[in-house]
Write a structure and sequence with these properties.
Distance between the termini: 65 Å
Largest sheet: 7 strands, mixed
Strand order of the largest sheet: 8-7-11-10-9-12-13
Strand content: 15-25%
Number of strands: 17
Order of helices and strands: HEEEHEHEHEHHHEEEHEHEHEEHHEEEE
Domain Thioredoxin: 9-168, 170-323
Low-confidence stretches: 1-15
Radius of gyration: 28 Å
EC number: 1.8.1.8
Enzyme class: oxidoreductase
Pfam families: C1_2, Thioredoxin_8
GO molecular function: thioredoxin-disulfide reductase (NADPH) activity
Structural class: alpha+beta
Length: 384
Amino acid sequence: MDGMEHRKGRVANKADATVLASQGIEFLISAEGEVPLSSLNQKTVCLYFSGKWCRPCRTFTPQLVKHYNNLRLSGRKMEIVFVSFDRDENGFEEHFEGMPWLAVPYNARKRLWEIFRVNSIPSLIPLGSNDEFVEDAVGLIDDYGVDAFPFTRKRREELKAMDDAMRDGGKLDDLLVQGGRDYVIGGDARKVLVSELLGKTIGLYFGAHWCPPCRAFTSRLVEAYNELKITKSRSFEVIFISTDRNEEEFDLNISTMPWLAIPYNDKSRSDLSRIFKIKGIPTLVIIGPDGKLVSTNGKAMISSYGAEAFPFTTSRVIEVETVIRIKGDGLPKQVKDTKHEHLLKLDMAKAYICDHCRKQGRFWVFSCEKCDFDLHPGCIEKSW
């Protein structure tokens, strides 16, 4: 494994440089040379446990550098102290070379591994009371960036409350507008103002081109989207939130989509994934005309009922299921039709192609149990 397994729990630690001095550490290292421990006084101090050999560390470190520099430029009193998990001193020096913060001497690192019980890297541990600070700030920074500062439990709860308010607040522009961007884009590079989407049912589509289930679902969603454009005029819109690996994949993806998207380099992509607690893709989140969350299970509705599920509420799904059941109750359980030599039995299918008219069918089908043959109920000779 690139990372290391984590055993939860660590000792209560003291503020400022006291914990470092108590372990016999007399000074810190910067790019210019030795730095006294007193330089940490009156700052929020975090110990950063990392190793150059660790792939998650190599991914997280550049993010941390960016956030650290932004915090320092904004006047926040913060310092990071690197504690190496590198396998030798040359590795430590190469890894530390790209870091703008301080480090403990290489020969002092193991004492800090033990006192903080660090068995997982990367790990960013704020110094201070365990009752005040989060145990490890890596996840918090991954989710919130510089907004995570000062990495306290109180700040984490504030940020979660802000996410809840965004998700449940009923304001589409709060969800989709980011900084100076007040629009979403189309695959043809056109820009559509978020204000033009107010009052519509919105599907937030989380997906990626590299994901085969996403490509399969995209085709179903395109079919339903195009049908709703005809039957429901302009009352439904989809906005793609990409988890593609790079901008080239994103561009390829949206070039095949008839709807809109959040720009690839926009922070809103990760914010929306966090706010709606997206755990896997494809996922379709439905936002109602009032801007409030309707469902996080739009994928299942589209997959099962297509455009018939619009506006994708629980009550509408119940209506559709009732209509389907009533229609099935009015059909025979089996038929013998001249178009096929075997007995055909009534069955349900999300989608199929009728072997007689060659058109797609959905829900009810007469199928042969002996061979791959399907007929629309409407294509059966109605002799019953």
